[in-house]
Design brief:
With about 250 residues, the chain is an alpha/beta fold. It contains eleven helices and twelve strands. Helices cover about 35% and strands about 20% of the residues. It has a six-stranded parallel β-sheet, sandwiched between helices. A two-stranded parallel ribbon has the order 3-5. The protein has a two-stranded antiparallel ribbon with strand order 9-12. Strand 10 (about 195-200) and strand 11 (about 200-205) form a beta hairpin. It binds flavin mononucleotide (FMN) and iron/sulfur cluster (SF4) (2 copies). Flavin mononucleotide binds near residues 50, 79, 82, 83 and 85.
């Protein structure tokens, strides 16, 4: 069984690639939360999440604190663009049980407040090792190898300090939509934490904080959503993993 959270498709793609080889069931964390499903049993359980601010998205963090995976092989995969930080450390801490193996896969960095994904060439800079890393994970989990296989991770004491930046970064006051908004409602429909409501055909952020997954910004058809003044996010483009299923 594979459980994943994915805003822009990278982590979902890793889940699908592993499932293609292992034939395992794939479950979305957002669906599990909606169905209030927190108990899982299988002879192997994988959990896949993006890295946010050297730690975990609030959606994954809240889910891990409630989840009860029953298995003799529990593994964690972080997708990331620059460093998986201390995401493995936090996953084990929030799950409250030992993780058998830790893995990472480098993929395009969707934090376009900083990183440029505006051209195929810019995206390709992040994907040079992606397929080999996924293949290696499939080989390891098939043999139920145990240990630390994450690359580029950050020591836990540093990650704890750096992850503290997430709380301020995820204030919804950073997000707004400009006049190119066509009122399609896609941002509200897809938000994993129901932070957006449509009022008079325009998005209104109704929570003080969200997961800051940037799914709304990357998915918006006219690219109307921006972070802060939008200068950087506008220049750095929109990105959804080309294999994303929904
Ligand atoms: C709010 C936010 C914070 C992020 N922080 C990090 C980070 O600390 N390190 C990193 O390497 N990538 C970071 N990323 C990039 C994502 O971890 C990466 O692009 C991931 O593959 C996205 O997964 P998804 O497409 O499944 O949502 C961040 C992305 C977002 C939206
Ligand atoms: S997805 Fe974009 S265009 Fe559609 S309602 Fe949201 S902001 Fe407006
Ligand atoms: S409001 Fe946008 S950035 Fe925040 S959680 Fe919802 S989709 Fe993600």
């Amino acid at each position: 069984m594979i459980l994943y959270f994915s805003a822009t498709g990278n982590s979902q793609y890793v889940a699908q690639r592993i499932a293609e080889q292992t034939g395992e069931e794939v479950l979305s964390v957002v669906d599990c939360v909606r169905e209030e499903r927190y108990s899982f049993a299988d002879n192997r359980i994988g959990i896949i999440s993006p890295t946010y601010n050297w730690g975990l998205p609030s959606v994954a963090r809240d889910f891990f604190q409630k989840a009860k995976p029953d298995t003799d092989y529990l593994y964690f995969v972080a997708t990331y663009g620059t460093t998986p930080g201390g995401s493995g450390y936090f996953a084990q801490k929030y799950l409250g049980k030992p993780i058998s193996a830790f893995y990472s896969v480098r993929m395009p960095d969707t934090w376009t407040v900083l990183f440029d994904l505006s051209t195929p060439e810019a995206v390709a800079k992040f994907t040079k090792t992606t397929e080999n890393e996924i293949d290696a994970i499939i080989s390891h989990i098939t043999s139920k190898d145990k240990g630390q296989f994450m690359r580029r991770k950050t020591p836990a004491f540093m990650a704890k300090m750096l992850y503290a930046t997430y709380d301020a970064a995820r204030a919804t006051s950073h997000l707004s939509a400009d006049d190119s908004c066509i009122g399609c409602g896609l941002c509200a429909e897809k938000c994993p934490v129901q932070a957006i409501e449509m009022t008079q055909n325009r998005p209104v952020w109704v929570k003080d904080k969200c997961a800051m997954c940037l799914g709304c910004l990357h998915r918006c058809p006219p690219f109307a959503i921006r972070y802060d003044d939008g200068k950087k996010t506008r220049a750095h483009g929109q990105y959804i993993n080309p294999n994303m299923l929904n």
